[in-house]
Amino acid sequence: MGTRFLLSELAARIGAVLQGPDAEVSGIASIEDALPGQVTFLSNPRYVAHVRETKAAAVIAKDPVPGAECAFLLAPNPYYAFACALELFHPREMRPAGVSSMASIHPGATLGKGVSIGPFCVVEEGAVVGDRAALVANVYVGKGAAVGEDSLVYPHVTLYHGVRVGKRAILHSGCVIGGDGFGFAPSEKGYRKILQVGTVEIGDDVEIGANTTIDRAALGVTRVGRGTKLDNLIQVGHNCVIGEDTVIAAQTGISGSCRIGSRVMIGGQAGLAGHLEVGDGVMLGAKTGVASSISAKDGAAWSGVPAMPHKTWLRMAMLLPSLPELFRRVKRLEEGKTAKEEE
Amino acid sequence: MGTRFLLSELAARIGAVLQGPDAEVSGIASIEDALPGQVTFLSNPRYVAHVRETKAAAVIAKDPVPGAECAFLLAPNPYYAFACALELFHPREMRPAGVSSMASIHPGATLGKGVSIGPFCVVEEGAVVGDRAALVANVYVGKGAAVGEDSLVYPHVTLYHGVRVGKRAILHSGCVIGGDGFGFAPSEKGYRKILQVGTVEIGDDVEIGANTTIDRAALGVTRVGRGTKLDNLIQVGHNCVIGEDTVIAAQTGISGSCRIGSRVMIGGQAGLAGHLEVGDGVMLGAKTGVASSISAKDGAAWSGVPAMPHKTWLRMAMLLPSLPELFRRVKRLEEGKTAKEEE
Amino acid sequence: MGTRFLLSELAARIGAVLQGPDAEVSGIASIEDALPGQVTFLSNPRYVAHVRETKAAAVIAKDPVPGAECAFLLAPNPYYAFACALELFHPREMRPAGVSSMASIHPGATLGKGVSIGPFCVVEEGAVVGDRAALVANVYVGKGAAVGEDSLVYPHVTLYHGVRVGKRAILHSGCVIGGDGFGFAPSEKGYRKILQVGTVEIGDDVEIGANTTIDRAALGVTRVGRGTKLDNLIQVGHNCVIGEDTVIAAQTGISGSCRIGSRVMIGGQAGLAGHLEVGDGVMLGAKTGVASSISAKDGAAWSGVPAMPHKTWLRMAMLLPSLPELFRRVKRLEEGKTAKEEE
Fold it and tell me: Which secondary-structure segment (H or E) carries A323?
């Protein structure tokens, strides 16, 4: 945290233009908490008023705020510039390379250069841990599973056998990649398990939240594409294919064999029935229930159960509390009264 | 994967009838991915067209598909026959018997014959691991807990003290069996914990998904019956009793003291209020919210919040997007206009 | 379980008044399962009939039940008195103090007096485990994280670096405290991670359910206040602040930067959009979807998606199944028919 920059230097490194006097800054904080000598940012317009009151030395923003006394670091995408500034003030602490003597590494596993493997990790036969990848502690990497270069795996993650994770991926604690998909054949004697003999492939630069579960395919591969970000406690069923740069919020559930496009955004607690497609660029609101395929051609944003265009949903939802009154109004009409007669 | 069978031999072993020329087959794949020399299956009628284009040597199906060039393995329950065929091509790899030197086994624990206990497993005092059961790695078996014969427990599973798991059960990574139920007595000084002094019993042939949580009873027993299958990220509250051969999809939540019957099917993200009954054979759609008891006598399939007969829900849900229009139509009627006058 | 009390003694210790003959009792059970010589309780009026049939020696209740043959332990808050009685019959078994030789404790960590640390726990540099706190097994305490005095941490819990947990807290298996919040800055090249450099603070006497996830703040602190109880599989987003003595049922999701008051009650599977406030004392029904801030001034109880006053929701929800019929009725009116003409 002892990192210091001149605003001019910071501007150059985050692709911003300094407006105001140069000064040394020593940290980054929210607009309400920033202290003198710190930098903050404005990306949500409703915080404009705070800019005039902030103690921060400078604000990363798209445009200067009239009446503010601080300097500005003007950037076309201030949130992105803020992300870059954060990285400068908080450079990634490299985990020390080395394998804990309290880890269990199968002699038939392959460890890359500079890996960091903490205590109580298990790396099974034929598994591969890429160069500079870190398994923090208590991580399980199954037989023949692979973790790509520079990936970071937090405690209590499970990678079942054969699962492949790309480069620079971040897997948060408790996520489970490659558990059996939910498939059972009914018979008179009860259910018979359908062996799940496929696998899971996680692309480069993917981040997977805590306690999220991604099931292995029955046959074939469950895929999560490059750059996609999954929040916590999400369920991805077997044989799903998720595109690139898609973001999915917490507690969403995706049933088996869904195809989710790229640059899709899905709100929290949404649910998707099986075997459907969600096209590139579609946005699903929180708690949406998707029962059939959706393409962005029919509208980008969807909400409700079952899913309808978001604007329709907004109008509909606003009226729901008036439904009892509507029933009464219809009853009055049936009794032969019009609104005028009512008066 | 080197397993090979003659189609005639495969037919005999999965209870199917071969129609078409005999040939050697070497694997099993989906209807779209199957290669020459492989077997595939047809259980969902909408894939019929794929049968005519498949490269597979044979298709497991109920009836032959006219115009298809492949052989058929005809079975009355093709999905079940497929399950059997999968097992032939992918025989279960027995985990090598033995206890890792990196496991912590209390001297007062009882280990059956042929158990397989991987590194960083903990088996506490008085716990029992049945014959041939496998604790893959990083599994915690609490004081006096029991894992039945031939059960398979994946990494990072927690069995709290006293919990009992039946035979041939499969517990996926991160599931937690026997955590405290959610019970607190309010008082002026805040909440006081109700000690949860009951336990959990999981029947034979149960499968429990990754990161699913099943709470111990406050007093008495939370039960999951024989052959029941729970998907990932499900919550089962304290004192619930779930019958046999019931299947519950991911992210469903069952509040405390519910009684769920046998052969019940529950879709994903459904929620059940506490202290209610769901009768044998009931089907609950995804995202259903059950607020009172349901019996199959009142209809087998239910959906919606709160739950209503599924057919009613379908009609209702179809109309929701038209609700704003309905309000306008009623307003017009109140203004004294009928549809005719409108024209 | 060998604990025995005279009813008169039990009454004194739980703040109840004995009505009926004194006798020795040896255990506590539910009203249906209680055996002779045991105590039970009545807090839900619908179980009154059971009191007349119970075999229990005495019932903890608010008022005696006419016609019952058992003794009564009369208490103004019988559920609370039951909680106290349970503690007497099931005194907390202290985990033996000591640090397992199979734990990994960094020399720069600080362990209090009488801590109990089981096998395969990791306590990183600068971390603090308070006096008499217990880490059962396979627990990960990150760099600089702190667990307060007398807290109990079950297997497979992860505390990320810097997270602080108060005194007498109970953390159930698989919960993850301090994982990265879900923040990414979109750009033309895909998403760039917003480093999450804040932390999490969990107050005294908090209980956190199995597999619940609480994300660290982007900047600043995610807080859970004293005495608050979270059930299983809950998601708490970054920068949330939750007050004191609030209870939240399983599978609820709270988006980032929400402020939840004190003595709030939230049902299962509820969802809250980001950056909103829920005032002190508000009650949210199961599956409620909160899209904007709610204060108890506007009504204590809310339900529905989006949230509306609970009473409104009840009336609305009751009418939903009749919506198809309402559409037909309006159509008839538009055709110029009134209810009378219909007949």
Answer: helix A323-334
